[in-house]
What we know:
4 strands, two-stranded antiparallel sheet, 150 residues, alpha+beta, two-stranded antiparallel ribbon, 1 helix
Amino acid sequence: MYPDHTPQRAVEVHQPTAIPSPVVHSAPVVPVQPGHVPTVASIVLPDGRVVTGYAIDAVRPEPVAAKPAVSRAAVNVALGGVGFLAVCGGLLLLTSFIAALTAFIGQLIILAAVIFGGWIAVQVLGTSGHKGGTTVHIRKATFKRNHFHG
């Protein structure tokens, strides 16, 4: 099993140790009667079979603690506060809207004045080559008895 140049080892064999089984003491079985004997109910099924059993009471949940009543005055104060804040917010928005609208209208008026003033400046200061008076160019016109025929 081992090659020639390997020293031989002694092999130890271990045998398993048996574990002693626990000692079981049997306690005497004593029937315990319930505090009250439940009612036995029998039901006859449509096919004639009879089912017998104990009636089980439905599990009733723990009663919920009653919520403390909220006074009407507290509710009215809370609703009044909410209404007051809503009105204040609405007035703030309305005031902001009116201020913005006023500024916009003012800017439109200034823009119209600048455009109209520029148009007037071009009309007055424009260089058209003639100064003052009205110039009328008449070509091939014939005057007869104060009537103009063109």
